[in-house]
Amino acid sequence: MPPTPPLRRFVAAAAAPVLVLSMAVATGLAHPAAAATVTTAWQNGAFSENTGGVVSRSDVVLGEPDSAAVQSLPQGNGSLGVAEWAANGFTAQLNRSDTMPNRLSPGRLNIPGLATLTSAANFSGILDLYNGVLSETGGGMSLKAWVPAGKDELVVDVTGANPNTRQTATL
User: Which of 16, 27, 49, 85 lies in disulfide reach of 72, CB 3.0 to 4.6 Å?
Assistant: First the structure.
């Protein structure tokens, strides 16, 4: 059934602004560059992004120690991968990409002397995803752990440990 004349006038009136806007864009009356300046990523005629700032918004923040292997935090450099968690102090499972498909691990590291850090009531931790650094503090100690680019190494830097207490690590 064809629309009644008042409805036709309404449809025509509603379509007119859309038609005028599309004609303005087609003929160049609208300025697309002006709309692009609203975003912070478009600057001086080029796309610019603070990658570190964007990635850091997704950092993993620990409010309590990740004491089970299923809670491990990942680190790596493409060749060496590490899963780190706070069981018995500090524990890290080392994995290499060339051991697939059998997933043979080159080893596991445990530093039991860091239990003071990971069992402290004031424990806090953060995995900086952009820089690939795990930072943990608690019990007057702090730890930074990372896998350097291009090396099969896990670096664990600890400060605040009692220098008169012997520390051990099991590999």
Answer: 85
Query: Which residue ranges does the chain devote to CATH 2.70.98.50?
Result: 53-159
pLDDT in tens for each of the 171 residues of the chain? 555 555 444 444 444 444 444 444 444 544 445 544 455 678 788 888 888 888 888 999 999 999 999 999 999 998 899 999 998 899 999 988 777 677 777 889 999 999 999 999 999 999 999 999 999 999 999 999 999 999 989 999 999 999 999 999 998
DSSP string, 100-148: TTTT--SEEEEEGGGHHHHT-TT-EEEEETTTTEEEEEETTEEEEEE--
Residues 6+ apart with CB under 8 A from 161: 113, 114, 116, 141, 167
Residues 6+ apart with CB under 8 A from 92: 82, 83, 84, 108, 109, 110, 145, 154, 156
**Could you say which DSSP state residue 77 is in?**
-
CA distance 75 to 66: 15
Q: The pTM is what?
A: 0.70
Class level of CATH domain 53-159: mainly beta
